[in-house]
Design a protein that fits this description.
Layout (H helix, E strand, L loop, with lengths): L11 H37 L5 H21 L1 H26 L4 H23 L10 H17 L1 H11 L5 H32 L5 H7 L3 H8 L4 H31 L8 H57 L4
Helix pairs in contact: 1-2, 1-5, 1-10, 1-11, 2-3, 2-10, 2-11, 3-10, 4-7, 5-11, 6-10, 8-9, 9-10, 10-11
Length: 331
């Protein structure tokens, strides 16, 4: 709006931005569903001894689609909000168990989180411009981590930003910035510090050969770590539910946002629109996961994330213009 004004919903540039935002949301969440189903399938195999075939994995995807479509149809207050609150409580309990009763000493994990805080701020600029010009690190790492992961993250920007703005109506800009920047940053440091620190301690002290198992199958790491703890089966079951609900609430929010975009910014799109885009997101994930696996999902995230990178830059400038105009009393 800061750049196009009242033409933001009618001009060709506004429609292109909306289209790329919807495309990024669909592709990014389809990638998440594909990877999520792989983790869910391994969890079912580990906990219940049931190895899912290709048809079984497709069945899991269909159940996820049904779950988040129902959640999206019930609205923000009754669907997404309740599931998110329950999931955050369960995830917090697992973190506390790892922090105080896991393999790694609590002091070690606090030291890890302190170190990660410095790494976080020190690494932002470094890896934003990192191109490995001297070939000091493996090219494969640059491609699958920096390129894939960051572009996948960029594909999440439109629906995360749009959905959070939708549920933040009435809050000040300062409150909004605190809620979307500082709180997630703190939670990320806690999350990766405790999980990563626990895994690193177990590997370095010869408790578990996590590195070898993860190289063979990335989905094994979480369940092998938890399975070696007292009460590990029950903790793993909680994590399995965590993964399922995270997949449901994320896709729920995504389908809600795409429905908003395709309804010309209507903050309460029709249920039929939410159902339609929820199904499209899920079917896209099924197709890419079953036909090409991880490589197809990685390519999908890169393809949909790259174009929106440039739209994101325009959004930053647009926000600056709007804030400046609001401060001058022109909005």
């Amino acid at each position: 709006y800061g750049i196009l004004g009242d033409r933001c919903n009618t001009s060709i540039w506004g429609r292109i931005a909306d289209g790329l935002g919807a495309l990024g949301t669909i592709g990014g969440n389809a990638a998440m569903i594909g990877l999520g189903v792989a983790s869910i399938s391994f969890g079912i195999k580990t906990l219940f001894g049931i190895e899912l075939s290709t048809g079984g994995q497709a069945g899991v995807m269909m159940l996820l689609i049904v779950a988040y479509v129902i959640s999206a149809a019930t609205g923000v207050e009754r669907g997404i909000k309740i599931l998110s609150q329950v999931n955050m409580i369960m995830a917090g309990c697992v973190l506390l168990i790892l922090l105080f009763f896991g393999h790694a000493p609590t002091q070690y994990l606090f030291n890890m989180m302190t170190q990660l805080t410095g790494d976080y701020f020190g690494g932002i600029m470094k890896y934003t411009f990192w191109a490995d010009a001297g070939n000091f690190e493996q090219r494969d790492w640059l491609g699958w981590w920096i390129v894939f992961y960051w572009l996948w993250w960029i594909s999440y920007i439109p629906f995360c930003g749009g959905f959070i703005a939708r549920i933040s109506k009435g809050r000040t800009l300062r409150e909004f910035m605190f809620g979307v920047i500082f709180v997630p940053m703190i939670l990320a440091i806690l999350w990766f510090g405790i999980w990563g620190g626990s895994a690193a301690y177990a590997e370095l002290n010869g408790i578990l050969p996590l590195w070898e198992s993860v190289q063979a199958n990335p989905e094994t790491g979480v369940y092998n770590l938890l399975g070696s703890m007292n009460g590990g089966w029950w903790i793993s079951l909680i994590v399995l539910f965590n993964i399922i609900i995270f997949a449901v609430t994320t896709s729920d929010s995504a389908s809600f946002f795409v429905a908003m975009q395709m309804s010309k910014g209507n903050p309460d799109p029709k249920i039929s629109m939410r159902l339609l885009w929820g199904v499209i997101i899920g079917l896209t994930g099924i197709i890419f996961q079953l036909t090409g696996g991880f490589n197809a999902i990685k390519a999908l995230a890169i393809v949909v994330g790259a174009p929106f990178f440039f739209v994101g830059i325009a959004f930053i400038f647009s926000t600056y213009v709007m804030v400046k105009a609001a401060k001058a009393g022109e909005m």
